[in-house]
Amino acid sequence: MAQSQKFSDRRLAEQILGFCKRVAGPRKICTISICGNYAFGMKNPKAAIEVLLVIRDFQPRLISYVRVFDARNVVVFAVDEWVFERDRKSVV
């Protein structure tokens, strides 16, 4: 059972990475981060997986995508690096 779960997690991660690469296109990906409950090991199959994707020189500056990968709902928040850094600095 654990081996099957590892394969499923790996396949899901590969699908998310592939989608993020398609969103970024030729632009540099600064970071991809899985956020929320999934990142903390709480893998409720009904809960959406949240992904933060930071891209250099991304237009539009901020957009969200909702997709289904490996029977899991995934929300990808794609944001331009400048906007992300500006927001981060205003919080600190």
Describe the secondary structure blueprint for this structure.
Blueprint (H helix, E strand, L loop, with lengths): L1 H23 L4 E7 L13 E7 L6 E8 L2 E9 H11 L1
Parallel strand pairs: 2-4
Antiparallel strand pairs: 1-2, 3-4
Polypeptide structure, described:
- 13% of the residues are buried.
- The chain contains 2 helices and 4 strands, in the order αββββα.
- By secondary structure, it is α+β, with helices and mostly antiparallel strands.
- It has a 4-stranded mixed beta sheet.
- A hairpin with a 2-residue loop joins strand 3 and strand 4.
- It has one domain: Beta Polymerase, domain 2.
What would a concise description of this structure say?
The protein is an alpha+beta fold and 92 residues long.
Characteristics of this structure?
92 residues, Beta Polymerase, domain 2, alpha+beta, 4-stranded mixed sheet, single chain, 4 strands, 2 helices, 34% strand
* Total individual domains: 1
Strands, count: 4
Using only CA atoms, what is the Rg?
A: 14 Å
- The CATH topology is given as Beta Polymerase, domain 2
Query: Which structural class should the secondary elements be placed in?
Result: alpha+beta
Secondary-structure arrangement, i.e. CATH architecture: 2-Layer Sandwich
Order of helices and strands: HEEEEH
At the first level of CATH, the class is: Alpha Beta
Low-confidence stretches: none
> Which band does the percent of strand residues land in?
25-35%
Tell me roughly what share of residues is in helical segments: 25-40%
Global geometry: globular
* Sequence of strands across the biggest β-sheet: 1-2-4-3
The number of distinct helices, counting runs of at least 4 residues, comes to: 2
Looking at CATH, the homologous superfamily is: Beta Polymerase, domain 2
Distance between the termini: 43 Å
Biggest sheet features: 4 strands, mixed
Question: What is the arithmetic mean of pLDDT?
Answer: 88
